[in-house]
Design a protein that fits this description.
The complex is a heterodimer of chains A (166) and B (175). Chain A is α+β, with helices and mostly antiparallel strands and 166 residues long. Chain A has one domain. Chain A has a six-stranded mixed sheet. Chain A has a two-stranded antiparallel ribbon with strand order 6-7. The longest helix of chain A has 22 residues. The termini of chain A are close together. With 175 residues, chain B is mostly helical. Chain B folds into two domains: 67 residues, Orthogonal Bundle (434 Repressor (Amino-terminal Domain)); 62 residues, no CATH class. The chains are: A alpha+beta (166), B mainly alpha (175). The interface between A and B is large, with 46 and 37 residues.
Chain lengths: 166, 175
């Protein structure tokens, strides 16, 4: 299956310490993060609130410190990490210390994410996006703004950049 | 395709995002912020001491996975755990020894000279004094007017050094 991604800035989650984005896949009406909220509200309302507070605290006070993110939530080197509250996982990526890109996620009820079909799908989607964005930045088609607080340039990644095996 | 080299991502709003933002409360955010602050202080202390997670875990008799949880910013610490961490990392996480300054604020009033001979109880604004006097202040509630036709001050005690500042000193200092 081929994918098309568009990077969307979430102004209301941004702060002086971080700029927060999500991703629209294949011209859907909602971002991956919107879908995450809708899929997990109201059953995981407490966990969603915790994650909301975490993002706010990072964006406004603490920055995107390494230890706030769960590692090994994707293939080695693809940059996929997770924010979490109890068993709820939100997959995300960081670029530098100021860019946070929110994907999808869900409750983790298995020992590893690969064993959960939903988490596996969300993880692999963000892995695809991650590898493509990294390529775009390497080619300087997507780059940092002058003040190094946001991404500019080519923020839509066409499906011709992907193969079915990516 | 967005090919403008300098164009940034377009701002976005959604119902889901509004719902997400509405979940937050000031008290919930304060708790989360404090947990994350503790995690930051602990990690910074580990870096300052030049010890990693494994070594810290050994020193505090915990599994490294516990340290990972402590540093995640999601852990709700007990006082005992914070006390142990303080000892091992030589960092202050609990501020229990600090004195909490107690300042009583009352309103200033002007006493005219006809009343100056009488002892009266009234309120005096010491905001001007607070800017100059550091430490803890305590006010007596009953005091005499000081200046003929002028303003009155209380006797002021500084609890740090237990000295009593006389009205005359106050006159010299703040009149």
């Amino acid at each position: 299956m081929k994918f098309k991604f568009k990077l969307i800035k979430l102004e209301d989650l941004c702060g002086k310490r971080a700029t927060v984005y999500s991703v629209v896949v294949n011209d859907e009406e909602q971002t991956l993060f919107d879908r995450f909220i809708n899929e997990n509200f109201p059953k995981y309302q407490k966990e969603l609130t915790d994650i909301s507070d975490q993002i706010d605290a990072m964006a406004t006070v603490h920055g995107l410190r390494d230890n706030f993110f769960k590692k090994r939530e994707g293939r080695p080197g693809d940059g996929v990490e997770a924010l979490f509250s109890k068993q709820l996982r939100l997959y995300c990526m960081r670029f530098g210390h100021v860019i946070l890109i929110l994907g999808g996620g869900g409750p983790k009820n298995t020992r590893t994410w690969e064993e959960d079909a939903k988490l596996d799908e969300e993880n692999r989607l963000l892995q695809k996006f991650s590898s493509l964005l990294t390529e775009k930045m390497r080619n300087k088609e997507t780059k940092w703004s002058l003040d190094a607080t946001e991404l500019i340039g080519d923020l839509e990644f066409g499906d011709e950049d992907l193969t079915e095996d990516d | 395709m967005n090919k403008d080299a300098n164009e940034s991502a377009k701002p976005y709003r959604s119902e889901a995002l509004d719902k997400f933002l509405s979940l937050r409360t000031p008290e919930g955010f304060a708790r989360t912020k404090n947990r994350m602050t503790l995690a930051v202080k602990i990690q910074d202390a580990m870096v300052a001491k030049g010890i990693g997670k494994k070594q810290f875990a050994d020193l505090i008799h915990q599994h490294p996975s516990v340290i990972t949880k402590w540093l995640s910013g999601t852990h709700n610490f007990t006082v005992d755990t914070l006390t142990d961490i303080e000892r091992v990392l030589d960092v202050q996480l609990l501020a229990l020894e600090e004195k909490t300054p107690v300042v009583y604020i009352v309103h200033r009033t002007t006493v005219n000279s006809e009343l100056s001979s009488n002892k009266q109880t009234f309120n005096v604004d010491l905001r001007g004094l607070q800017r100059s006097i550091k430490g803890e202040l305590a006010l007596t509630q009953t005091y005499d007017p000081l200046f003929p036709g002028g303003q009155a001050f209380s006797n002021v005690l500084t609890q740090e050094n237990k000295t009593k500042t006389s009205r005359e000193n106050l006159k010299r200092r703040y009149a």
